[in-house]
Design goal:
The protein is α/β, with parallel strands linked by helices and 253 residues long. The chain contains ten helices and ten strands. The strands form two sheets. It has an eight-stranded mixed beta sheet with strand order 3-2-1-5-7-8-9-10, with helices on both faces. It has a two-stranded parallel sheet with strand order 4-6. The protein binds NADP nicotinamide-adenine-dinucleotide phosphate. GO terms for molecular function: pyrroline-5-carboxylate reductase activity.
Length: 253
């Protein structure tokens, strides 16, 4: 019998997780606003019970708590009792800080991304080995997962893959605009960009980016011209620095 999971929060990530878990685990949803808890369950037909925070602090004795609130909200939450497990998706919040705030036997940090809503996230996980198997099961409906051997790596995973959809969204939007600039209709440009990204995901499964680049780039051809321009403008360095900036911010949260 799978354990009951208590989801704290009803935002975008909580919804993605709740949809994935509904029907697979007994599920409770809690948060500071009872109306929003009820709306989340009713609007999305979730197989979940509301857990209204009548008392503060919330009694978490023997519960498995999935924390899906904003990182800054942690300091405002209060709990009593000792949970069996805490699973936190909060960017930049260390296990040490979780331990100070939420008494529990074991802790897991997880870093999914927005593709979780489509079951296509690659979720980075780290924490107590005793919860590794259960954590992998909990996050399985969101896509694949990757267990990190050290907590220190999770900020890098956040900067790369947690924020990653925003970097790729910026590129997709720019490419759509570029297509329109060169005479394609908005719809044509959007369809071609969508096809480019979904086909590229399959290519990347199959081969290294350097090989893909080599195969597309004929000597003296069009792609070589575009690549030379992107390199001269420093696209590669910009992306590397952007991930560093996100990582430094995650460490300050
Ligand atoms: N979005 C992503 O792509 C992504 C990826 C990886 C990890 N994360 C992490 O996921 C977490 C949630 O992000 P999200 O995108 O789902 O945000 P969101 O849609 O804005 O939802 C935020 C949630 O936090 C709750 N909250 C905020 N302040 C609170 C407080 N003081 N006390 C209690 N609850 C409070 C909100 O409840 P109210 O409506 O009552 O304020 C809501 O349930 C964040 O910690 C983020 O670091 C997000």
């Amino acid at each position: 019998m799978p354990p009951t999971l208590t989801l704290y929060g009803y935002g975008k990530m909580a919804l993605a997780i709740a949809k994935g878990l509904s029907g697979r685990f007994p599920l409770e949803i809690t948060g500071r606003n009872p109306q929003k808890i009820e709306e989340l369950i009713a609007l999305h037909g979730l197989n979940a019970s509301p857990l209204f925070p009548h008392d503060s602090p919330l009694d978490i004795t023997d519960r498995h708590l999935l924390l899906c609130v904003k990182p800054y909200a942690l300091s405002e939450l209060s709990f009593s009792g000792e949970a069996k497990g805490v699973y936190s998706i909060l960017a930049g919040v260390s296990i040490e800080r979780l331990r100070e705030k939420i008494p529990a036997q074991s802790y897991i940090r997880a870093m999914p991304n927005m593709a979780a809503s489509l079951g296509s996230s690659c979720t980075a996980l780290c924490g107590d080995e005793s919860l590794k198997a259960l954590a992998s099961e909990i996050f399985a409906p969101l896509g694949t997962s990757l267990w990190l051997d050290k907590e220190s790596k999770i900020d890098a995973a956040t900067a790369l893959a947690g924020s990653g959809p925003a970097y790729l969204a910026l590129m997709a939007e720019a490419l759509m605009d570029a297509g329109v600039r060169e005479g394609l209709s908005r719809e044509e440009s959007k369809a071609l960009t969508q096809g480019l990204f979904s086909g590229f995901a399959d290519l990347l499964e199959d081969r290294h980016p350097a090989l893909i680049k080599e195969e597309v780039t004929s000597p003296g051809g069009t792609t070589a011209e575009a690549l030379a321009l992107l390199e001269s403008k420093g696209l590669r360095g910009i992306l590397i620095e952007a991930v560093r900036a996100a990582l430094l911010k995650a460490k300050k949260l």
